[in-house]
Protein backbone atom coordinates (compact mmCIF):
# COMPACT_ATOMS: atom_id res chain seq x y z
CA UNK A 1 0.00 0.00 0.00
CA UNK A 2 1.21 3.47 -0.80
CA UNK A 3 0.49 7.09 -0.07
CA UNK A 4 -1.10 9.42 -2.64
CA UNK A 5 -2.11 13.05 -2.11
CA UNK A 6 -3.64 15.98 -3.92
CA UNK A 7 -0.22 17.53 -4.40
CA UNK A 8 2.14 14.65 -5.07
CA UNK A 9 5.06 16.84 -6.14
CA UNK A 10 4.95 18.87 -2.95
CA UNK A 11 4.88 15.72 -0.83
CA UNK A 12 7.87 14.27 -2.66
CA UNK A 13 9.84 17.50 -2.12
CA UNK A 14 9.12 17.13 1.59
CA UNK A 15 10.50 13.62 1.46
CA UNK A 16 7.17 11.88 2.06
CA UNK A 17 6.84 9.33 -0.75
CA UNK A 18 4.83 6.12 -0.45
CA UNK A 19 5.44 4.36 2.84
CA UNK A 20 8.22 6.79 3.83
CA UNK A 21 6.21 8.93 6.25
CA UNK A 22 4.53 7.75 9.31
CA UNK A 23 3.23 7.97 12.90
CA UNK A 24 0.98 8.78 15.85
CA UNK A 25 -1.06 10.56 18.73
CA UNK A 26 -2.93 9.89 21.94
CA UNK A 27 -5.42 12.42 23.30
CA UNK A 28 -4.73 11.15 26.80
CA UNK A 29 -1.35 12.89 26.93
CA UNK A 30 -2.09 16.19 25.17
CA UNK A 31 -4.73 18.90 25.49
CA UNK A 32 -8.25 18.06 24.28
CA UNK A 33 -8.58 18.76 20.55
CA UNK A 34 -11.51 19.54 18.31
CA UNK A 35 -13.52 16.53 17.17
CA UNK A 36 -11.87 15.01 14.05
CA UNK A 37 -13.81 15.39 10.81
CA UNK A 38 -16.42 12.77 10.02
CA UNK A 39 -16.19 11.06 6.64
CA UNK A 40 -19.65 9.57 6.25
CA UNK A 41 -19.78 8.74 2.55
CA UNK A 42 -18.08 9.05 -0.82
CA UNK A 43 -20.23 9.04 -3.95
CA UNK A 44 -19.84 7.35 -6.27
CA UNK A 45 -17.98 4.84 -4.13
CA UNK A 46 -15.71 3.68 -6.93
CA UNK A 47 -15.29 3.47 -10.66
CA UNK A 48 -14.11 1.48 -13.63
CA UNK A 49 -10.51 0.57 -14.32
CA UNK A 50 -8.82 3.39 -16.24
CA UNK A 51 -11.50 5.98 -15.43
CA UNK A 52 -11.45 9.45 -13.89
CA UNK A 53 -14.51 9.82 -11.67
CA UNK A 54 -15.86 13.02 -10.14
CA UNK A 55 -16.97 12.28 -6.59
CA UNK A 56 -18.36 14.04 -3.54
CA UNK A 57 -17.49 13.44 0.10
CA UNK A 58 -20.03 13.95 2.87
CA UNK A 59 -19.44 14.43 6.57
CA UNK A 60 -19.40 17.02 9.32
CA UNK A 61 -16.21 19.07 9.31
CA UNK A 62 -15.39 18.48 5.65
CA UNK A 63 -16.97 21.76 4.54
CA UNK A 64 -13.64 23.55 4.98
CA UNK A 65 -11.24 23.81 2.08
CA UNK A 66 -7.81 22.23 2.21
CA UNK A 67 -8.51 18.54 2.76
CA UNK A 68 -6.07 16.21 1.05
CA UNK A 69 -6.61 12.52 0.38
CA UNK A 70 -4.61 9.37 1.01
CA UNK A 71 -5.35 6.13 -0.79
CA UNK A 72 -4.15 2.61 -0.14
CA UNK A 73 -2.76 2.14 -3.66
CA UNK A 74 -0.78 4.27 -6.12
CA UNK A 75 -3.19 3.01 -8.80
CA UNK A 76 -6.17 4.67 -7.10
CA UNK A 77 -5.39 8.36 -6.58
CA UNK A 78 -7.81 10.89 -5.09
CA UNK A 79 -7.32 14.50 -6.22
CA UNK A 80 -9.04 17.61 -4.89
CA UNK A 81 -11.64 19.40 -6.97
CA UNK A 82 -12.43 23.09 -7.25
CA UNK A 83 -14.76 23.11 -4.23
CA UNK A 84 -14.68 21.68 -0.71
CA UNK A 85 -15.89 18.07 -0.52
CA UNK A 86 -15.37 17.63 -4.28
CA UNK A 87 -12.76 15.14 -5.47
CA UNK A 88 -11.61 13.21 -8.51
CA UNK A 89 -10.95 9.50 -8.30
CA UNK A 90 -8.23 8.61 -10.82
CA UNK A 91 -8.09 4.86 -11.45
CA UNK A 92 -5.09 3.62 -13.39
CA UNK A 93 -5.34 1.03 -16.16
CA UNK A 94 -3.07 -1.13 -14.02
CA UNK A 95 -5.50 -1.14 -11.09
CA UNK A 96 -6.92 -4.50 -10.08
CA UNK A 97 -10.66 -4.91 -9.49
CA UNK A 98 -11.52 -4.87 -5.80
CA UNK A 99 -11.78 -2.66 -2.70
CA UNK A 100 -9.38 0.10 -1.61
CA UNK A 101 -9.24 2.56 1.29
CA UNK A 102 -9.22 6.35 1.14
CA UNK A 103 -8.77 8.83 3.97
CA UNK A 104 -9.19 12.60 4.10
CA UNK A 105 -6.90 14.78 6.20
CA UNK A 106 -5.69 18.33 6.76
CA UNK A 107 -2.93 19.93 8.80
CA UNK A 108 -4.63 19.21 12.11
CA UNK A 109 -6.82 16.11 11.76
CA UNK A 110 -7.62 12.99 9.78
CA UNK A 111 -10.92 11.28 9.07
CA UNK A 112 -11.61 7.57 9.45
CA UNK A 113 -10.99 5.64 6.21
CA UNK A 114 -13.74 4.68 3.80
CA UNK A 115 -13.96 1.93 1.21
CA UNK A 116 -14.08 2.53 -2.53
CA UNK A 117 -14.27 -0.19 -5.13
CA UNK A 118 -12.71 -0.59 -8.57
CA UNK A 119 -14.77 -2.53 -11.10
CA UNK A 120 -14.21 -3.86 -14.59
CA UNK A 121 -17.63 -3.08 -16.08
CA UNK A 122 -19.22 0.12 -17.40
CA UNK A 123 -20.26 2.42 -14.55
CA UNK A 124 -23.62 4.23 -14.49
CA UNK A 125 -24.74 6.93 -12.03
CA UNK A 126 -28.40 6.71 -11.07
CA UNK A 127 -30.67 9.31 -12.57
CA UNK A 128 -33.73 10.40 -10.64
CA UNK A 129 -36.60 9.73 -10.78
CA UNK A 130 -36.04 5.98 -10.76
CA UNK A 131 -38.44 4.86 -8.05
CA UNK A 132 -40.74 2.78 -10.24
CA UNK A 133 -40.66 0.36 -13.13
CA UNK A 134 -42.18 3.08 -15.32
CA UNK A 135 -39.27 5.39 -14.41
CA UNK A 136 -36.73 2.69 -15.27
CA UNK A 137 -38.25 2.23 -18.74
CA UNK A 138 -37.05 5.72 -19.62
CA UNK A 139 -33.41 4.53 -19.50
CA UNK A 140 -31.80 1.87 -21.70
CA UNK A 141 -31.74 -1.69 -20.37
CA UNK A 142 -28.17 -2.75 -19.63
CA UNK A 143 -26.06 -5.77 -18.82
CA UNK A 144 -22.49 -6.14 -17.54
CA UNK A 145 -22.71 -2.84 -15.72
CA UNK A 146 -22.27 -1.36 -12.25
CA UNK A 147 -24.99 1.03 -11.09
CA UNK A 148 -23.97 3.66 -8.51
CA UNK A 149 -26.78 5.07 -6.43
CA UNK A 150 -27.98 6.51 -3.13
CA UNK A 151 -31.15 5.62 -1.26
CA UNK A 152 -31.31 9.23 -0.21
CA UNK A 153 -34.49 9.46 1.87
CA UNK A 154 -36.90 7.37 3.89
CA UNK A 155 -39.06 5.21 1.64
CA UNK A 156 -36.71 5.55 -1.33
CA UNK A 157 -36.71 2.72 -3.88
CA UNK A 158 -34.33 2.60 -6.86
CA UNK A 159 -35.21 0.69 -10.01
CA UNK A 160 -33.03 -0.25 -13.01
CA UNK A 161 -33.75 -1.99 -16.32
CA UNK A 162 -31.49 -4.85 -17.34
CA UNK A 163 -31.33 -6.83 -20.58
CA UNK A 164 -31.43 -10.61 -20.12
CA UNK A 165 -30.84 -13.38 -22.64
CA UNK A 166 -32.59 -16.75 -22.70
CA UNK A 167 -30.70 -19.43 -20.79
CA UNK A 168 -27.84 -17.09 -19.86
CA UNK A 169 -27.55 -16.95 -16.09
CA UNK A 170 -27.38 -13.45 -14.61
CA UNK A 171 -25.89 -12.42 -11.29
CA UNK A 172 -26.87 -9.28 -9.37
CA UNK A 173 -24.64 -8.32 -6.45
CA UNK A 174 -25.19 -5.27 -4.27
CA UNK A 175 -22.47 -3.68 -2.14
CA UNK A 176 -23.89 -1.19 0.35
CA UNK A 177 -23.30 -2.50 3.85
CA UNK A 178 -19.99 -3.94 2.57
CA UNK A 179 -18.85 -0.40 1.69
CA UNK A 180 -19.62 0.78 5.22
CA UNK A 181 -23.00 2.37 4.42
CA UNK A 182 -25.45 2.38 7.38
CA UNK A 183 -27.97 0.15 5.63
CA UNK A 184 -29.52 -3.30 5.53
CA UNK A 185 -30.34 -3.48 1.82
CA UNK A 186 -32.68 -5.82 -0.04
CA UNK A 187 -33.30 -6.45 -3.71
CA UNK A 188 -35.95 -8.00 -5.92
CA UNK A 189 -36.10 -8.87 -9.62
CA UNK A 190 -39.26 -8.17 -11.61
CA UNK A 191 -40.42 -9.35 -15.03
CA UNK A 192 -41.83 -7.03 -17.66
CA UNK A 193 -45.27 -7.23 -16.03
CA UNK A 194 -43.91 -6.18 -12.64
CA UNK A 195 -44.21 -9.65 -11.09
CA UNK A 196 -41.43 -10.60 -8.68
CA UNK A 197 -39.43 -13.53 -10.08
CA UNK A 198 -36.48 -13.54 -7.64
CA UNK A 199 -35.39 -11.78 -4.47
CA UNK A 200 -32.35 -11.43 -2.26
CA UNK A 201 -31.64 -10.09 1.22
CA UNK A 202 -28.81 -11.18 3.51
CA UNK A 203 -25.82 -13.21 2.32
CA UNK A 204 -22.63 -13.62 4.41
CA UNK A 205 -23.33 -10.03 5.48
CA UNK A 206 -26.37 -7.76 5.10
CA UNK A 207 -25.92 -7.24 1.35
CA UNK A 208 -28.14 -9.18 -1.09
CA UNK A 209 -27.27 -11.27 -4.12
CA UNK A 210 -29.56 -12.73 -6.80
CA UNK A 211 -28.76 -15.40 -9.38
CA UNK A 212 -31.37 -16.09 -12.05
CA UNK A 213 -31.54 -17.84 -15.42
CA UNK A 214 -34.11 -16.28 -17.80
CA UNK A 215 -36.36 -18.60 -19.79
CA UNK A 216 -36.58 -16.07 -22.65
CA UNK A 217 -34.97 -12.88 -23.89
CA UNK A 218 -36.48 -10.10 -21.80
CA UNK A 219 -36.08 -6.72 -20.18
CA UNK A 220 -36.11 -7.28 -16.44
CA UNK A 221 -36.17 -4.78 -13.59
CA UNK A 222 -34.22 -4.79 -10.35
CA UNK A 223 -35.53 -2.81 -7.39
CA UNK A 224 -33.44 -1.83 -4.37
CA UNK A 225 -34.49 -0.61 -0.93
CA UNK A 226 -33.06 -0.71 2.58
CA UNK A 227 -33.95 -1.21 6.21
CA UNK A 228 -32.21 0.42 9.14
CA UNK A 229 -28.75 -0.53 10.30
CA UNK A 230 -28.22 -0.68 13.23
CA UNK A 231 -31.65 -2.36 13.45
CA UNK A 232 -34.68 -0.29 14.44
CA UNK A 233 -38.01 -1.28 15.95
CA UNK A 234 -39.94 -0.48 12.77
CA UNK A 235 -39.42 -2.11 9.36
CA UNK A 236 -39.97 0.89 7.13
CA UNK A 237 -37.62 1.60 4.24
CA UNK A 238 -34.79 3.87 5.31
CA UNK A 239 -32.51 6.24 3.43
CA UNK A 240 -30.07 9.10 3.76
CA UNK A 241 -27.27 10.81 1.85
CA UNK A 242 -24.98 8.11 3.28
CA UNK A 243 -26.96 5.14 1.93
CA UNK A 244 -24.47 4.75 -0.92
CA UNK A 245 -24.36 1.50 -2.91
CA UNK A 246 -22.89 -0.20 -5.96
CA UNK A 247 -24.96 -2.78 -7.86
CA UNK A 248 -23.12 -4.98 -10.38
CA UNK A 249 -25.21 -6.89 -12.91
CA UNK A 250 -23.48 -9.39 -15.18
CA UNK A 251 -24.20 -12.41 -17.33
CA UNK A 252 -20.52 -13.31 -17.64
CA UNK A 253 -19.84 -16.74 -16.13
CA UNK A 254 -17.85 -16.88 -12.94
CA UNK A 255 -14.31 -18.21 -13.28
CA UNK A 256 -14.36 -21.97 -12.98
CA UNK A 257 -13.36 -23.30 -9.59
CA UNK A 258 -10.13 -25.27 -9.81
CA UNK A 259 -10.65 -28.65 -8.18
CA UNK A 260 -7.88 -31.13 -7.38
CA UNK A 261 -9.23 -33.02 -4.43
CA UNK A 262 -7.41 -36.28 -3.72
CA UNK A 263 -9.42 -38.03 -1.03
CA UNK A 264 -6.28 -39.35 0.65
CA UNK A 265 -3.84 -36.70 1.84
CA UNK A 266 -0.11 -36.97 2.42
CA UNK A 267 0.83 -34.27 4.93
CA UNK A 268 1.63 -31.44 4.56
CA UNK A 269 -1.06 -30.93 1.92
CA UNK A 270 -2.98 -28.18 0.14
CA UNK A 271 -5.95 -29.09 -2.07
CA UNK A 272 -8.72 -27.24 -3.87
CA UNK A 273 -12.28 -28.49 -3.73
CA UNK A 274 -15.90 -27.51 -4.29
CA UNK A 275 -19.16 -28.24 -2.47
CA UNK A 276 -21.04 -28.61 -5.73
CA UNK A 277 -24.57 -29.34 -4.50
CA UNK A 278 -26.83 -28.82 -1.49
CA UNK A 279 -26.04 -31.10 1.43
CA UNK A 280 -22.73 -32.31 0.01
CA UNK A 281 -19.68 -32.85 2.21
CA UNK A 282 -16.09 -33.46 1.11
CA UNK A 283 -14.12 -35.96 3.20
CA UNK A 284 -10.33 -36.40 3.20
CA UNK A 285 -8.44 -39.16 5.00
CA UNK A 286 -4.90 -38.90 6.33
CA UNK A 287 -2.53 -40.79 8.60
CA UNK A 288 -0.92 -39.09 11.60
CA UNK A 289 1.14 -40.00 14.65
CA UNK A 290 0.40 -39.38 18.30
CA UNK A 291 1.58 -35.93 19.37
CA UNK A 292 1.60 -34.42 15.87
CA UNK A 293 0.63 -30.77 16.23
CA UNK A 294 -1.38 -29.77 13.13
CA UNK A 295 -2.77 -26.51 11.81
CA UNK A 296 -5.79 -26.95 9.54
CA UNK A 297 -7.26 -24.10 7.52
CA UNK A 298 -10.04 -23.66 4.98
CA UNK A 299 -10.14 -20.60 2.73
CA UNK A 300 -13.41 -19.79 0.97
CA UNK A 301 -14.60 -16.26 1.78
CA UNK A 302 -10.93 -15.27 1.68
CA UNK A 303 -10.83 -16.28 -1.99
CA UNK A 304 -13.36 -13.47 -2.75
CA UNK A 305 -15.13 -15.51 -5.46
CA UNK A 306 -16.61 -18.28 -3.31
CA UNK A 307 -20.06 -18.44 -1.76
CA UNK A 308 -19.09 -21.16 0.70
CA UNK A 309 -19.60 -20.46 4.42
CA UNK A 310 -17.25 -23.26 5.36
CA UNK A 311 -17.47 -25.63 8.31
CA UNK A 312 -14.66 -28.02 9.20
CA UNK A 313 -14.54 -31.08 11.44
CA UNK A 314 -12.12 -33.89 12.31
CA UNK A 315 -13.34 -37.47 12.79
CA UNK A 316 -11.60 -40.63 13.91
CA UNK A 317 -11.82 -43.93 12.00
CA UNK A 318 -15.13 -44.72 13.74
CA UNK A 319 -16.75 -41.44 12.70
CA UNK A 320 -16.53 -39.81 16.13
CA UNK A 321 -16.16 -36.01 15.90
CA UNK A 322 -12.94 -34.97 17.63
CA UNK A 323 -12.89 -31.24 16.87
CA UNK A 324 -14.78 -28.78 14.69
CA UNK A 325 -14.87 -25.11 13.64
CA UNK A 326 -16.93 -22.86 11.39
CA UNK A 327 -15.06 -19.56 11.67
CA UNK A 328 -11.94 -18.08 13.24
CA UNK A 329 -10.87 -14.87 14.94
CA UNK A 330 -8.20 -14.18 12.35
CA UNK A 331 -9.86 -15.44 9.15
CA UNK A 332 -13.46 -14.35 9.81
CA UNK A 333 -15.96 -16.79 8.28
CA UNK A 334 -13.18 -19.15 7.16
CA UNK A 335 -12.44 -21.84 9.78
CA UNK A 336 -9.01 -22.64 11.18
CA UNK A 337 -8.10 -24.95 14.02
CA UNK A 338 -5.10 -26.37 15.81
CA UNK A 339 -5.25 -30.07 16.62
CA UNK A 340 -2.92 -32.39 18.50
CA UNK A 341 -3.20 -35.98 17.31
CA UNK A 342 -4.28 -38.22 20.24
CA UNK A 343 -2.90 -41.53 18.88
CA UNK A 344 -1.37 -43.15 15.82
CA UNK A 345 -3.98 -43.86 13.17
CA UNK A 346 -6.12 -42.75 10.28
CA UNK A 347 -8.32 -39.67 10.54
CA UNK A 348 -10.81 -37.83 8.39
CA UNK A 349 -11.22 -34.11 7.60
CA UNK A 350 -14.70 -33.09 6.50
CA UNK A 351 -15.46 -29.79 4.71
CA UNK A 352 -19.08 -28.64 4.33
CA UNK A 353 -21.22 -25.55 4.00
CA UNK A 354 -22.55 -24.28 7.32
CA UNK A 355 -26.07 -23.97 5.88
CA UNK A 356 -25.82 -27.11 3.70
CA UNK A 357 -25.78 -25.10 0.47
CA UNK A 358 -23.72 -25.96 -2.57
CA UNK A 359 -23.05 -24.95 -6.18
CA UNK A 360 -20.24 -24.54 -8.69
CA UNK A 361 -19.40 -21.27 -6.86
CA UNK A 362 -18.85 -22.98 -3.47
CA UNK A 363 -15.12 -23.51 -3.92
CA UNK A 364 -12.46 -23.67 -1.22
CA UNK A 365 -8.82 -24.34 -0.42
CA UNK A 366 -7.92 -26.80 2.34
CA UNK A 367 -4.43 -26.72 3.87
CA UNK A 368 -2.98 -29.03 6.52
CA UNK A 369 0.53 -28.54 7.92
CA UNK A 370 2.55 -28.65 11.11
CA UNK A 371 1.47 -25.93 13.53
CA UNK A 372 3.54 -22.76 13.69
CA UNK A 373 3.08 -20.02 16.27
CA UNK A 374 1.29 -16.89 15.05
CA UNK A 375 0.37 -13.47 16.39
CA UNK A 376 -2.65 -11.21 16.16
CA UNK A 377 -1.80 -7.59 17.02
CA UNK A 378 -4.70 -5.12 17.17
CA UNK A 379 -4.34 -1.35 17.47
CA UNK A 380 -6.72 0.59 19.70
CA UNK A 381 -7.74 3.07 17.00
CA UNK A 382 -7.26 4.06 13.35
CA UNK A 383 -5.49 7.43 13.84
CA UNK A 384 -3.35 9.28 16.36
CA UNK A 385 -2.34 12.89 16.96
CA UNK A 386 1.00 14.08 18.35
CA UNK A 387 2.19 17.59 19.20
CA UNK A 388 5.82 18.64 18.84
CA UNK A 389 7.58 18.50 22.22
CA UNK A 390 5.06 16.02 23.66
CA UNK A 391 4.37 12.30 23.87
CA UNK A 392 1.59 9.96 22.80
CA UNK A 393 0.74 6.32 23.39
CA UNK A 394 -0.08 3.64 20.87
CA UNK A 395 -1.89 0.71 22.50
CA UNK A 396 -1.81 -2.82 21.14
CA UNK A 397 -3.67 -5.94 22.15
CA UNK A 398 -1.51 -8.99 21.50
CA UNK A 399 -2.96 -12.49 21.10
CA UNK A 400 -0.29 -15.12 20.44
CA UNK A 401 -1.19 -18.59 19.24
CA UNK A 402 1.41 -21.09 20.34
CA UNK A 403 4.56 -20.76 22.43
CA UNK A 404 7.57 -18.77 21.28
CA UNK A 405 11.11 -19.71 22.20
CA UNK A 406 12.62 -16.26 21.65
CA UNK A 407 11.62 -12.77 22.76
CA UNK A 408 8.75 -10.96 21.03
CA UNK A 409 9.14 -7.24 20.38
CA UNK A 410 6.82 -4.52 19.13
CA UNK A 411 8.28 -1.53 17.35
CA UNK A 412 7.04 1.49 15.42
CA UNK A 413 8.55 1.93 11.97
CA UNK A 414 8.75 4.72 9.38
CA UNK A 415 8.62 7.59 11.84
CA UNK A 416 8.84 11.16 10.53
CA UNK A 417 11.89 13.25 11.39
CA UNK A 418 11.91 14.35 15.01
CA UNK A 419 9.80 11.47 16.33
CA UNK A 420 11.17 8.40 18.12
CA UNK A 421 9.72 5.36 19.86
CA UNK A 422 11.54 2.66 21.78
CA UNK A 423 10.68 -0.96 21.05
CA UNK A 424 8.77 -2.85 23.75
CA UNK A 425 8.98 -6.50 24.83
CA UNK A 426 5.74 -8.42 24.44
CA UNK A 427 4.79 -10.95 27.13
CA UNK A 428 4.68 -14.51 25.83
CA UNK A 429 1.04 -14.78 26.94
CA UNK A 430 0.09 -11.57 25.11
CA UNK A 431 -2.08 -8.81 26.53
CA UNK A 432 -1.99 -5.03 26.25
CA UNK A 433 1.24 -3.38 25.11
CA UNK A 434 1.96 0.37 25.02
CA UNK A 435 4.43 2.14 22.75
CA UNK A 436 5.35 5.73 23.56
CA UNK A 437 5.97 8.19 20.75
CA UNK A 438 8.09 11.21 21.54
CA UNK A 439 8.37 14.29 19.35
CA UNK A 440 11.11 16.88 19.68
CA UNK A 441 10.04 20.49 20.09
CA UNK A 442 11.49 21.22 16.63
CA UNK A 443 9.56 18.44 14.84
CA UNK A 444 7.91 19.70 11.64
CA UNK A 445 4.20 19.21 10.95
CA UNK A 446 3.33 16.16 8.87
CA UNK A 447 0.45 13.85 8.09
CA UNK A 448 1.02 10.28 6.95
CA UNK A 449 0.47 6.61 7.76
CA UNK A 450 2.87 4.57 9.86
CA UNK A 451 3.21 0.94 10.91
CA UNK A 452 3.75 -1.14 14.03
CA UNK A 453 5.69 -4.36 13.53
CA UNK A 454 5.87 -7.40 15.79
CA UNK A 455 9.01 -9.57 15.54
CA UNK A 456 10.56 -12.46 17.42
CA UNK A 457 14.16 -13.53 17.94
CA UNK A 458 13.28 -17.18 17.30
CA UNK A 459 14.53 -17.63 13.71
CA UNK A 460 11.86 -20.06 12.51
CA UNK A 461 8.91 -19.20 14.75
CA UNK A 462 7.06 -16.43 12.97
CA UNK A 463 7.37 -13.88 10.21
CA UNK A 464 7.15 -10.18 10.96
CA UNK A 465 3.55 -9.24 11.68
CA UNK A 466 2.05 -5.79 11.26
CA UNK A 467 -0.48 -4.58 13.78
CA UNK A 468 -3.88 -3.75 12.33
CA UNK A 469 -6.86 -1.64 13.35
CA UNK A 470 -10.47 -2.55 12.65
CA UNK A 471 -12.21 -0.37 10.06
CA UNK A 472 -14.61 1.78 12.13
CA UNK A 473 -18.22 0.66 11.75
CA UNK A 474 -21.33 0.50 13.92
CA UNK A 475 -22.52 -2.92 15.10
CA UNK A 476 -20.95 -5.15 12.44
CA UNK A 477 -23.27 -7.87 11.13
CA UNK A 478 -20.97 -9.55 8.66
CA UNK A 479 -17.85 -8.60 6.77
CA UNK A 480 -17.14 -5.33 5.01
CA UNK A 481 -15.11 -5.49 1.79
CA UNK A 482 -12.11 -4.53 3.94
CA UNK A 483 -12.22 -5.40 7.64
CA UNK A 484 -8.77 -4.35 8.86
CA UNK A 485 -5.84 -2.18 7.77
CA UNK A 486 -2.21 -1.99 8.85
CA UNK A 487 -1.68 1.71 8.01
CA UNK A 488 -2.87 3.74 11.01
CA UNK A 489 -2.52 7.49 10.65
CA UNK A 490 -0.35 10.10 12.36
CA UNK A 491 -1.05 13.80 12.50
CA UNK A 492 2.08 15.53 13.79
CA UNK A 493 1.36 19.12 14.82
CA UNK A 494 4.26 21.61 14.92
CA UNK A 495 4.87 23.69 18.02
CA UNK A 496 3.17 27.07 17.92
CA UNK A 497 5.51 30.06 17.62
Please describe the structure with a list of short key phrases separated by commas or semicolons.
497 residues, mainly beta, Immunoglobulin-like, Jelly Rolls, 4 domains, five-stranded mixed sheet, 2 helices, disordered N terminus
Furnish the topology, listing elements before pairings.
Blueprint (H helix, E strand, L loop, with lengths): L7 H6 L27 E3 L2 E3 L3 E7 L9 E4 L4 E5 L5 E6 L6 E8 L8 E6 L2 E4 L7 H4 L8 E6 L7 E7 L5 E6 L7 E8 L5 E5 L8 E4 L5 E11 L15 E7 L13 E2 L3 E6 L6 E8 L4 E7 L10 E6 L5 E5 L10 E5 L4 E9 L9 E8 L3 E6 L3 E5 L3 E11 L6 E6 L5 E3 L2 E3 L4 E9 L6 E4 L1 E6 L8 E2 L2 E2 L13 E2 L3 E5 L4
Parallel strand pairs: 2-8, 9-10, 18-20, 28-39
Antiparallel strand pairs: 1-3, 3-6, 4-7, 5-6, 7-8, 10-17, 11-16, 12-15, 12-17, 13-14, 13-16, 19-26, 20-25, 21-24, 21-26, 22-23, 22-25, 27-29, 29-33, 30-32, 30-35, 31-33, 34-39, 35-36, 37-38
Q: Determine the CATH topology of the largest domain.
A: Jelly Rolls
Question: Over all CA atoms, what is the radius of gyration?
Answer: 25 Å
What low-confidence regions span 5 or more consecutive residues with pLDDT below 50? 1-33
Count of helices?
2
Integer average pLDDT: 88
This entry's quaternary arrangement is single chain
Largest sheet: 5 strands, mixed
CATH first level of the largest domain: which class? Answer: Mainly Beta
User: Structural class from helices and strands?
Assistant: mainly beta
Major sheet: order of its strands?
A: 9-10-17-12-15
Amino acid sequence: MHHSTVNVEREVRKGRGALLCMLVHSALLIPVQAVPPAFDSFFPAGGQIGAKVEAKAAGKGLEKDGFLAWSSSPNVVVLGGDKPMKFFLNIAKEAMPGPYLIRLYNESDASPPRIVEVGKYEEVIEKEPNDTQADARQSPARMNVTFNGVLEKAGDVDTYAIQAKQGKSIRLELHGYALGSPMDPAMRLLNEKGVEIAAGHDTHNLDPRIEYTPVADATLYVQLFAFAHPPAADVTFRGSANHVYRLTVTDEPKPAVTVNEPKTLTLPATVNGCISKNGEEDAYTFTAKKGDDLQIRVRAQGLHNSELDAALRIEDSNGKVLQQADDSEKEGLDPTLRWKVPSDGEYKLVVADRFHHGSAEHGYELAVAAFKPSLIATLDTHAYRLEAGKSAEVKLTMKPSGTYVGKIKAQVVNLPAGVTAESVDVPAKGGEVKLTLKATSEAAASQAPFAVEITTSAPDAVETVKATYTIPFTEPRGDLLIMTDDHPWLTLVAKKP
